[in-house]
Design brief:
The structure is a homodimer. By secondary structure, chain A is an all-beta fold. In chain A, about 5% of the residues lie in helices and about 45% in strands. Chain A is built from two helices and 49 strands. The longest helix of chain A has 11 residues, at about 20-30. Chain A is globular and about 65 Å long. The interface of A and B includes residues 23, 50 and 64 of A.
Chain lengths: ~575, ~575
């Protein structure tokens, strides 16, 4: 049944805040069978003041606490929202879409953008190894000591990082990385040397080129454009996020999510270098199938995609069958670790190897950081404080097909899931690794040893040109195990890389360790010459502490390439293979 | 049935954090008939790290968002917690007791205190009209420009106000008021003139005496010691709060609350000048009976008691029978305004007079500030944006008996409730008004025109010695109506003041306006001579825009006293009466 927003007083292209009227239209959709909420094509504005508010923990974002939400789709089944090509424009701290405890929700035909995006653009007008000058584009800024602030959403926000980018594409400059952000930024001394011109002195770690774009970062990861939580069977189709002060889309404990023609894309004609200020899409503790088809993710300030679980730290053994479990990373706190009935693996935090399993019988979330979990059996003595557990029930299959990833900061696809992974017919370009398969229980606590990854028929374009900031090679397999050669079992398994094209200026194609079952066949390597190579590297493929590799039938333009694969490379047992 | 905390691993007098083990004991109380949770007499420590966490809006406090709670008594009926004389010591940001959606909960025989209270003590060592010096008592402070910070709960907190107090009693100095806090404090220039000695320059609004105590304020109203919400029939008995970083006890939308031997009291021997850093007890939108007997409230940094409702502002008329309603005051946001079935009065924000009524049929809380409310009938046109509404269903009767109130900052009892109020056999001393009966729809938005107040057999000791900061007279009746004489109906009704003793240095006993039915009989006024009188005042009683006053049979030591009562005093129609 169709619900028309205009029946609730919503007027297309009005400068008024549509939030409250749209909320009342959404409310009307409850209790109707298969409702479709339809917007006449137009521009609609959404402000936080009168928006629905809810306490949410959003994985991999900074802001906890209460969030304002324009479209709070909570406990809604079989709902479709069709924008019919409308533009939804948001102001300040408001989440466009929350899909929570819902089933079969579809979003279609709309764009999401912000009136005032959360970054600043300027121009590098002078640079030496000692200092550089940036001409700011906006008239409103303040410099107090080394604190440069601009107005954002009615408050003063400090710039805390700078990137050198191509003023046309917004792509990061060769070798620039994060070398003018965070702690490196803090070491710089700021001075106003002219109206709207700021000098940054103190031997910057990267010397930008005059004429390049000076992209300035501010704020934190406030919230995503679309947040799916505890929902299933949802589809986002022909939806474009031009900006989000955080990620484009986050799914947390969701099942069966399909993104088709979901784009995180620059707004045409706006001259902006940035789309989302963090990842394009991020999936934490999902299951079922995650599918992306015909998506374009460009110019985010972090990776286009990350799929992972969470390793939770064992903080106390409360009894034989009950643990106090702790989320360590500040950006993971509040995420539900498990439900009764879930299967859990206990993992050694040094080897990352699982050594026991149990089924959850009860869960008591004390607070964002601590949860008491009881299990169906007495836990072996090995289960000790400092080890971690991983929810084995929540790991999705992943298909990424016919997508384009380009011009963002950091890496390409981050894949850590034991599910079936297929990455095919994509075009992947990133200043870091094009694909990264990691896993760690000591820093980000992102879990998910892979079991079955197929990467085929993709084109990789000049990846990893900010080496070594964001990767070792085009494909980087680097679970954080300090001494992988000491363990007889590998962390990752069955990674097949076939029929891909690598256009690259660099030698390094694959770098990794702790893989059992590695296939690299029928790939073609083309030399782009776009940049100087990253380092003196002989081998296109370097795999340490790995087993069962098949590297064959590849074609390397301009001559042969070498692969180095060993079960125990670090201790000198090497097996070099020239293809 | 008895539940013993020691069965859950809780050890008396242990330095360990008891929070998690006590939580598990509380959990055990669920599903047991009339459980009593018993602590062996001892000292128990509660830290926030592993405490239960919940989103709460707490009336008249600063901190919204997530709160850690040591005793989360949510949905618990017929529970008793007996400390058997134990001391509960809290650390940092944690609410000791939350009683929510519960019935018949009793707390008995315990003290509540903090390891590190939220204020600082020093000594005035020098003072001129230009500047004064304070010797800090702690070794850990930092002065950065005009920002003086001390460590509190692992963070640096800035001092933002100073009070001159008697170093023995902690009582405020004559004429000191808030004249060294907030904006007045900000005007002072700070300088370190010796190790641990800070000079505050810039013509302070109050010149303290060397040798007096320098009480320094820091932090905000984080949370109360005990928070009751949506609960009924609860009793707090023989419980003492030595400190809370906020109020001693807050009840919000509760019915039938009894406090017997509930004290907010200095810790003997600790040498502290402050107990709670805000009110001792505060009741917002309660109903049924509120009873206080044999309570001692001393040395809080705000009033001992405040009972009131809330005026919510009409923000939009969404339809004939539906309003968007707004909470204005930052410390009231998030409080539920009404439930379906509640009766509501519509009130003119200038006259404060109610002009229409309706019954609530549905409530949709959009966010902390805005709520959509529908009513059972079309609302008259008079109901317009800017007017306010008041929930008529939620107003309690109040009995305060055999209590002592002393040495706090600000006023004594703040009473704004249409219920039956009885204040008898108390000893009341405050640097502001001893009793204040107000109501306003433009600043604090505290509602509740009184209908039946009896104040009898109390002793008032030297109130209002910081005049005019916190009151006009010992009893101050000052609804915030700009032109009360213009309205034929009075805001307050039936205030009887009988058989009280007023020990006072000052002439002013009662000041007020807009009262219909005022009785002041059989009271005795004694001259204390403790301080110089506040102002040249002839009349002991000044009542403007009031009707039906009976002032008779009072005894004034040292001669007669004068009363001035008029329906239209401000326009010159006066009726002076000498008793």
């Amino acid at each position: 049944m169709l619900i028309r927003v205009e029946d609730f007083g919503v007027v297309p292209d009005s400068p008024e805040d549509a939030t409250l009227a749209v909320y009342r239209a959404i409310k009307q959709c409850r209790g109707i069978e298969r409702p479709t909420l339809v917007f006449p094509k137009g521009t609609y504005r959404f402000k936080p003041e009168k928006a629905f508010e809810k306490q949410l923990f959003i994985t991999n974002h900074d802001q906890r606490g209460l969030h304002k939400i324009a479209f709070p789709l909570v406990g809604m089944d079989d709902l479709t929202i069709d924008g019919q090509g409308s533009e939804f424009v948001f102001y300040g701290s408001i989440i466009p879409f929350l899909i929570e405890n819902s089933r079969n929700v579809r979003l279609r035909n709309m764009t999401i953008d912000w009136e005032r995006p959360m970054f600043e653009q300027g121009e590098f007008v002078r640079a030496t190894p000692e200092s550089f000058d940036i001409r700011l584009s906006g008239p409103r800024y303040e410099l107090n000591g080394n604190r440069l602030t601009v107005e954002y959403d009615g408050r003063e926000e400090a710039i805390w990082g700078i990137h050198e980018v191509d003023p046309e594409t917004g792509a990061h400059a060769y070798g620039s990385g994060d070398r003018l952000s965070w702690s490196s930024f803090k070491k710089l001394t700021l001075e106003e040397v002219g109206k709207g011109i700021i000098r940054f002195s103190g031997k910057p770690r990267h010397v930008p080129k005059p004429g390049s774009g000076a992209l300035m970062r501010l704020g934190r990861r406030e919230h995503p454009g679309i947040f799916l939580k505890d929902s299933s069977d949802c589809r986002i189709e022909d939806v474009t996020v031009h900006h989000a002060p955080g990620m484009g889309l986050v799914a947390q404990r969701c099942a069966d999510i399909s993104l088709r023609g979901f784009n995180v894309m620059r707004r045409p004609g706006a001259g902006r270098w940035v789309t989302a200020t963090a990842d394009a899409v991020h999936f934490t503790y999902c299951r079922g199938r995650i599918e992306l088809e015909h998506c374009l993710f460009e110019n985010q300030l972090d990776d286009p995609l990350n799929v992972h679980g969470i390793y939770a730290r064992i903080a106390e053994r409360l009894s034989d069958d009950t643990l106090l479990v702790q989320l360590i990373h500040d950006m993971q706190v509040g995420v539900e670790i498990a439900d009764p009935g879930d299967d859990v693996r206990f993992v050694d935090n040094e080897s990352l190897l699982a050594y026991a399993e149990a089924t959850v019988t009860s869960v008591e979330k004390m607070n964002a950081r601590y949860t008491v979990i009881s299990f169906d059996r007495p836990l072996p003595d090995m289960v000790k404080v400092g080890n971690v557990l991983e929810n084995a029930t929540w790991s999705p299959d992943l298909t990424i097909r016919h997508c384009t990833f380009r011009s963002n900061r950091a890496r390409g696809l981050l894949i850590t899931t034991p599910g079936k992974v297929l990455v095919e017919h994509n075009v992947i370009s990133a200043p870091g690794a094009g694909i990264k398969i990691s896993g760690d229980a000591n820093s980000w606590y992102e879990s998910g040893a892979v079991r079955d990854v197929v990467i085929r028929n993709n084109t990789f374009l000049d990846c990893n040109y900010c080496y070594p900031d964001w990767g070792n090679a085009v494909i980087d397999i680097d679970p954080e195990i300090e001494h992988p050669e000491r363990f007889s079992i590998c962390y990752h398994r069955n990674i097949r890389i076939e029929h891909n094209e690598f256009h690259t200026f660099d030698s390094g194609i694959v770098s990794g360790h702790s893989v059992d079952g590695f296939v690299f066949r029928h790939n073609r390597i083309r030399r782009s010459g776009s940049f100087p190579p990253n380092a003196d590297r002989i081998y296109a493929i370097e795999l340490a502490a790995s087993r069962n590799a098949d590297i064959s039938d590849n074609v390397a333009e301009g001559g042969s390439f070498m692969a180095l694969v060993g079960t125990d490379i670090l201790n000198g047992l090497k097996k070099a293979k020239t293809v």
